[in-house]
Amino acid sequence: MSNFLPINTILVPQGAEYKAVCRGLSGVTGSIPTVVAIPVGIKPLLKYLQQGQFLAPKSRVLIMGLCGSLSDRYTVGDIVLYQDCIYQGQQQECDRTFTAQLHSAFSTDAINRVSTNSPPNLVKALTSDRVIWSAAEKRRLSKTLAADVVDMEGFTALEFFNTAGVSVAILRVVSDDCQYNIPDLTSAINSNGSLNPFPLAMAMLRQPLAAIRLIRGSLTALKVLEEVTNLLFSGSNQK
């Protein structure tokens, strides 16, 4: 990964996504970025970022994790790189140079074996303050906003770091598509951005088929997230 180092910090939502990235880095030798687990959701993330002093101007931050697809073009396991992120009519752009360098790193055979994307697609992302669980709503948002994927952190992070002069790129893996509903997990997210196990279990039990699809999709996407993290930082993409 020396072609676009240094990356100072990787930010990734706490829980399974954070663990997947850490597993991907576990066998990497040499210098690796600091990995920071961030809370899920707009307000918890903003509060966390405002309290932290772990980044200096001109730093490079890579945000990693999972996302949901709003478009038929992107399916479970696809790797996407954000060009920009929208929220309530506002837009924040990722660092163009950083993103282009990441995109070019995916031109090798080793990286391509991880995903059907060759190289990964550059996408417009929507940040939402709630879980977008309905397939019909996903398709509607894709049409009305021309957005490709959805997450719950991207815009907030970009707005904060762009103001601070920190370069940001966002690399995510699709965990759920726009063909089927997933359980509505909004009530399972605590005010501090963590998951509450009991409401999470209840939401899953109320929609068992949707829960099975979400679990399968998440496991697939987490495996891709782990593998692509390892490949990006192990130097195996260097010729």
Q: What's the β-strand tally? A: 8
Give the uncertain stretches in residue-range form: none
What is the string of helix and strand elements? EHEHEEEHHEHEHEHH
- What is the fold named in CATH at topology level? Rossmann fold
Q: What is the gyration radius calculated from CA atoms?
A: 17 Å
Looking at the overall shape, the CATH architecture is 3-Layer(aba) Sandwich
CATH class category label: Alpha Beta
Helical content (DSSP H or I, runs of 4+):
25-40%
- Count of DSSP-assigned helices: 8
Fraction in beta strands: 15-25%
Largest sheet: 5 strands, mixed, barrel
Can you tell me about this structure?
The chain is an alpha/beta fold and 239 residues long. The chain has a single domain (9-181, 221-234), classed as Nucleoside phosphorylase domain (Rossmann fold), CATH 3.40.50.1580. Helices cover 39% and strands 22% of the residues. The protein is built from eight helices and eight strands; from the N terminus they run E-H-E-H-E-E-E-H-H-E-H-E-H-E-H-H. It has a five-stranded mixed barrel, surrounded by five helices. The model has no long low-confidence stretch (mean pLDDT 88).
How is this fold's topology laid out?
Layout: E1 9-13, H1 16-25, E2 34-38, H2 42-51, E3 60-69, E4 79-87, E5 90-93, H3 96-105, H4 109-112, E6 121-127, H5 135-145, E7 149-151, H6 154-164, E8 167-176, H7 197-206, H8 208-234
